[in-house]
Amino acid sequence: MAVKTTDSFGRPLVAVTGMGLVTSLGQGKKDNWAALTSGRSGIHRITRFPTDHLAATIAGTVDFLPQSSQGASALTYALADLAAEEAIAESGFSVTDFGGPLFLAAPPVELDWHHRLRLFAQSDRERGWRSLLDAARDANERERFDECQFATIADRLSDKYGTRGMPITLSTACASGATAIQLGVEAIRRGECERALAIGSDGSATAEALIRFSLLSALTTQNEVPEKASKPFSKDRSGFVLAEGAAALVLEPLEAALARGADVLGIMLGCGEKADDFHRTRSKPDGSPAIGAVRAAIADAGISVEEVDYVNAHGTSTPENDKMEHLSLSTVFGERIRNIPVSSNKSMIGHTLSAAGAIEAVVSFLTMREGVIPPTINYEIPDPAIELDVVPNVKREADVKVVLSNSFGFGGQNTCLVMAREAR
């Protein structure tokens, strides 16, 4: 029987043929999957920089790389590089001549501290800010200039892996990783490329980031037992835990993947996005933008709500976001949502910000391939206002054919993805 290679709208089905993953739990899909399914947390006390006087002193930082102490820009690149290498190698494409566009989700870039201190040392304090500008324009400081440019990381990745066209760097807050995948899917559907590399990477767990999110009352301050601090959907949840990581996916038309004999890891069925202009950080109380994003993704996938077997939740562990996500899911799925597994990887790895949507997409594909749903750990006090099957504390074997993965970002940027184990 011939495999269907177009969707119900006549568009090319988009296959995933390579995936890479790095989080605080380890490097590579194998180590991460073993940790996630065993319910192990990668959240720990911060040792990279002093945490005196900080409200939050824990994070899911990636501390096992040489670049971990070299600043956010260097670490974000290193994480993206490792994920890309694993994904491209698995796909079977050339790791030096990939031949398709790059879509990179990355955090807003600013001068790392070692650059700031060097700039200050080279300036004349008596001349004030003008001296700082002169020092920054020094021809010998090109490295510093490049590192604080938003597109530099993507440029370096493009040069190394031989991607085509201008590499795209995007930042849609916590939805960034999912948005990068969406851009790749849409480019293939339009026939603009034969393959695409989508990456979400974030190594920006800095002191400044902790302060900023703390000022927004977004971070938990339950520092005493780090591995128990992230508790999505639990009644005693108190905020998210900042984290780092990266994931990469190689996307290509299913027809082309089958023709070259590639191992198809899964299918990207649908993407949905909706903007929320209610508030800079808060979601609209009625949840309509999130509801719209979920419905748009399911509609774009050409399936019914009854066909979704599992939801990889955004599940940040903040009081408001978890409540809003429950509202959106219960509105879309009705009473059936009580019987659909809905778990959050952030309970174990924290919130990886720009990388979260991509990381959770990779985990969703692994869930379908392995027939195992990772748990939501630290779920000890159920919230009666959130009636969800969160796969509490222990993994669950399940036949999962279709997954909905949610990403709801600050600034009202909401992106949802629908993925399938095989062509439908």
From TrEMBL:
**Name of a matching Pfam family:** ketoacyl-synt
Task: Provide the alphabetized UniProt keywords.
Answer: Transferase
Q: Name one GO biological process term.
A: fatty acid biosynthetic process
Boundaries of every Ketosynthase family 3 (KS3) domain copy: 11-421
- Output the InterPro entries linked to this UniProt entry: Beta-ketoacyl_synthase (IPR000794), Ketoacyl_synth_AS (IPR018201), Ketoacyl_synth_C (IPR014031), Ketoacyl_synth_N (IPR014030), PKS_Beta-ketoAc_synthase_dom (IPR020841), Thiolase-like (IPR016039)
Q: Name one GO molecular function term.
A: 3-oxoacyl-[acyl-carrier-protein] synthase activity
GO cellular component assignments: cytosol
**Which SUPFAM superfamilies does the annotation name?**
Thiolase-like (SSF53901)
Question: Superkingdom, according to UniProt?
Answer: Bacteria
Q: In which pathway does it act?
A: Lipid metabolism; fatty acid biosynthesis
Family, per entry: Belongs to the thiolase-like superfamily. Beta-ketoacyl-ACP synthases family.
What is this protein identified as?
Answer: Beta-ketoacyl-ACP synthase II
**Annotated source species:** Nitratireductor aestuarii
